[in-house]
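Table 4 source record.
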Amino acid sequence: MRITGEKPNGCYVLGLERSLLDVEPPAFMATWLLPPNVRCRPEPTTYEYQEAFRIGLKREVVTLHHAGGELSVEVEDLSPRLKAWSPRGVPSVRS
């Protein structure tokens, strides 16, 4: 899953977690937190953050919970790209 946007300053730490509250479709939570002992100038900063998750069977959509509510996100199957990418010495991924 990949999220992009703008955070209040560069000190915020981003995270994506699997939500255990929703069973179907699988759900995730986008979070950000400001470490307590950090001081930053209040300059908005753009971000791009991603993590990979196993979701079992092929799904068309997953849910993303965030501060502004929730989004239904289309799932893109990356298996064909992973199978095609196999540099020397690294075995290709098999499903």
